[in-house]
Specification:
six-stranded mixed β-sheet, Aminopeptidase, 419 residues
Length: 419
């Protein structure tokens, strides 16, 4: 069995939405953008031939990023240009009515009317699936736990071969545990770092991956930027369009090898400009370089640490830290951290500190800075707005501290474009 991972992300990342192609004829969760990924996939078939080979479409649930491209697949399959095309769609209850309405809304009326969907498309209710046999595969559905949204995971067992499971979006539940315990490979939703009633998370997920290593090859999917950030230095995250041979002993090797993680050029070969940035002068405050931290292979990037002092004095009123994170890094939370002592927490001071750090960032060819502040820190939010930064999102982060204790904080994430 061959699985092409069409997408590993969710709708809010640069990565394609979580979707999978088994061999060349089974597609799982054709969400937004999946068709483009299918056409990019590795075999050399013409575009129309790739689509016409699809015979089985599995949909876990009715969220846009998991099924909207089914319209394009069905359009091609039901066009009657190739009379040998046909497909079965396995989906949660109410799928035929919902998907056909989506097709009608997404096409011109004449196009919709001339397509022979009833002839070429067969719908199967996942809640009544029991065991569905397709070629050498036996497919079983499992009701998962995606909060108020009905989600079905699928276990696909190959005759005289291995078993692969796809959870769709789900929190940890009994059926997820069952699928892992009865599969050789399992694609598991590990959307973020926070504890949720809708998604499993990457923090607990990585522990699970090591726990089952050698028993079930667990592959994280539906990854957010926060999940990707957490992966750095801990595991090799899966990549879009990677092709896995399920018959291999470990199709997806998530274990970090020596020298993996942060690229060497970003750590050991990085050149700090300590003399150039030993002291940065402003009108209200100056920044004195106190420390530089060499990035390690675990997860940290090269970092400048400055003391904030009153202009032309030695009075330290706070600190600011800037990490030189490449713009291509997917898991940005923040790369500027600012702290001021009581009595000096002034908008003018924060503004000037950011402007001084901008000089360091631009020297290292950073195009974007990521700034954060608590949602109720309206004074700092005003500062970021005056800099021209744009509020990206308000995010709840669940993380492990140095003692391994899970903690949660809420932050506004701002994007400051330096160009």
């Amino acid at each position: 069995m061959k699985v092409t991972v069409l997408g590993t992300g969710c709708i809010w990342t640069k990565r394609a939405c979580a979707s999978y192609l088994i061999n060349d004829d089974i597609i799982i969760d054709p969400g937004s953008g999946t068709l483009k990924q299918l056409l990019k996939s590795s075999n050399n078939l013409l575009h129309h031939e790739k689509i016409e080979k699809i015979k089985l479409i599995l949909i876990t649930h009715y969220h846009i990023d998991h099924y909207f491209d089914v319209v394009h697949l069905m359009w091609k399959i039901a066009s009657e240009k190739n009379p040998n095309t046909s497909a079965t769609v396995i989906c949660p209850p109410g799928g035929k009515e919902r998907i056909m309405k989506l097709c009608e809304l997404g096409m011109s009326q004449p196009t919709y009317n001339k397509l022979n969907f009833d002839k070429y498309i067969n719908f199967v209710d996942a809640s009544k699936l029991n065991k569905f046999v397709y070629k050498d595969f036996e497919i079983t559905s499992f009701l998962m736990d995606h909060g108020p949204t009905v989600d079905y995971g699928y276990m696909i067992k190959e005759r005289n071969g291995k078993t692969v499971s796809f959870t769709g979006d789900t929190n940890y539940c009994k059926n997820l545990e069952y699928m892992i315990n009865h599969s050789d490979v399992a694609f598991v939703d590990m959307a973020g770092t926070d504890i949720s009633n809708k998604h499993f998370n990457i923090i607990d997920g990585i522990e699970l991956m090591y726990k089952y290593k050698g028993k079930c090859n667990i592959i994280p999917c539906h990854l957010t930027s926060q999940a990707l950030d957490y992966c750095n230095g801990k595991i090799n995250p899966p990549q879009d369009l990677m092709v896995l041979n399920i018959d291999d002993e470990m199709p997806y090797d998530f274990v970090l090898k020596a020298g993996s993680g942060v690229k060497k050029s970003q750590t050991t070969d990085f050149k700090f400009e300590s003399e150039k940035f030993d002291k940065l002068y402003g009108d209200i405050v100056d920044l004195n370089l106190s420390l530089t931290k060499r990035g390690t292979s675990s997860y940290k990037f090269p970092t400048y640490c400055f003391d904030i002092v009153l202009h032309n004095s030695s009075t330290v009123i706070g600190s600011v830290v800037y990490s030189v994170v490449p713009d291509s890094f997917e898991g940005h939370n923040d790369n500027v951290s600012l702290s001021l002592k009581e009595g000096y927490n002034l908008k003018s001071v924060k503004y000037e500190c950011c402007q001084l750090i901008k000089k360091v960032a631009k020297f290292h060819e950073s195009k974007i800075l990521y700034l954060t502040c608590p949602p109720d820190d309206f004074a700092t939010r005003k500062v970021f707005e005056s800099l021209g930064a744009i509020l990206k999102e308000i995010k709840t982060f669940t993380f492990l501290d140095d003692d391994g204790v899970r903690k949660t904080k809420e932050n506004c994430i701002w994007i400051w474009n330096l160009e």
